[in-house]
Amino acid sequence: MTRMLVDVDTGIDDALALAYLASLPDVEFVAVTASPGNVDARQVAANTLALLELCGRRNVEVAVGAEVPLAIPLVVSPETHGPQGIGYAVLPAPSGAVSPRHAADLWVEAARAHPGELTALITAPLTNFALAIRREPRLPELLGKVVIMGGSFFHQGNTTPTAEWNTHVDPQAAKEVYAAFSGLPEDRLPIVCSLDTTERMEMRPGHVRRLAAAAGCAVEELVLPEQPVGLRSTSENPLVRHLSDALRFYFEFHRLYNQGYLAHVHDYFAAGVAAGTLDYSTRLATVDVEVDSPLLRGTTVADYRDLWGKPPNARIVTDNHPAAAFEELVASIGGLARRMG
Predict the structure, then answer these.
(1) d(Cα 174, Cα 127) in Å, to the nearest integer?
(2) pLDDT in tens, 20-32
(3) Residue 76: other Cβ atoms inside 10 A
(4) Could you tell me the CA-to-CA distances from 81 to 37, 127, 178 in Å, in that order?
(5) Are 12 and 85 in contact (CB under 8 A)?
(6) DSSP string across 31-51
(7) Average pLDDT, the chain
């Protein structure tokens, strides 16, 4: 059993990542926490509760922590993920309620209670994780495995020419988090899934069609570039229908910005790394984050050659296998949708 603490800013690709993790019978959600990012933290929590319930994972504790970044104003991305964060999908209202606990307190209490046992996955800005480390500086040592989706090293940024979204939303938090891992043993360093490899995870209409077929849907699920913008799914399977509506919005966004009719599903890859279901390679590096320059704010810099003379604080993913990853996604989420449908 993989016991997971997850921090999200749900988010279309966060939703896909959560659905994937929910499809794995050997994954237990210890808690899922909401950071501000793609939408505000309260909307993130509502999206997360609803999505988990849709996937059959009721009674998972979902908590809000920070509602703004550590030192700069919050910027959200309705143009990328839709006004509610999940594209065209309109999820059923959740029956559960958001936890009264603060996300950072929840992370600290869980890690102290289960030292070395928990896997941490952060697919959001690192705000809540930084606050948790402020509360408990030993948190990087108490967690068993840490996976971060964020940053860009040899790849163009997706928010500015050099900065990736999650890091750009709260660069101060990212800087604090990487500094907290300095000097730890290699197996305690975070595994960083940056744009260098997550932008290879290109979900396309064929994957949606195959996912619906794996779910046992009687009618093909067609999300095609020639269809009208904003067309909604009529699938009889609720999970397929909602994921299809979310992904259509994401496909349309990427096409609008000349990237093709596809979706970069960054967070799904990070979820697979955290769950141990996807293959990848890493390289040790010392990572720092620019927080002051208006031109470069949120830029992640990796020293692979010890030029700074500082110990490594990250294991950056350098290679992955998208074709195999999408085979896994289609089979696993398709199987969950079949069971739930």
Answers:
(1) 8
(2) 999 999 999 999 9
(3) 18
(4) 11, 20, 27
(5) yes
(6) EEEE-SSSS-HHHHHHHHHHH
(7) 97
Predicted TM-score (pTM) of the model is 0.97
Q: Which residue has the tokens 């509502």?
A: 46
pLDDT tens across 82-136, in order?
Answer: 999 999 999 999 999 999 999 999 999 999 999 999 999 999 999 999 999 999 9
Query: Does the pLDDT at position 341 exceed 90?
Result: no
CB 223 within 8 A of CB 248: yes
Q: For the sheet with 280-289, list strands across it.
A: 62-64, 27-34, 2-8, 118-122, 145-149, 191-193, 314-320, 280-289, 300-303
Element (H, E) at 165: helix 165-169
| pLDDT for the residue 53 | 97
Three-state SS for 63-77 is EECCCCCCCCCCCCC
User: 95: buried, middle or exposed (CB in 10 Å: 19+, 13-18, 0-12)?
Assistant: exposed
Mean local confidence (pLDDT), 281-306: 98
Q: How many residues does the chain have?
A: 341
The pLDDT of residue 194: 98
The answer, yes or no, to whether residue 6 has pLDDT greater than 90, is yes
Taking the C-alpha atoms of residue 35 and residue 107, their distance in angstroms, rounded to an integer, is 13
Distance CA 270, CA 266 (A): 7
- How far, in Å, are 165, 167, 181, 280 from residue 153 at the CA level? 13, 12, 19, 17
The Cα–Cα gap between 150 and 166 comes to 6
Q: Tell me the C-alpha distance between 158 and 155, whole Å.
A: 9
Strand partners, 99: 63
240-276 pLDDT, tens per residue?
999 999 999 999 999 999 999 999 999 999 999 999 9
For 239-277, the DSSP string reads HHHHHHHHHHHHHHHHHHTTS-S-EE-HHHHHHHHHHT-
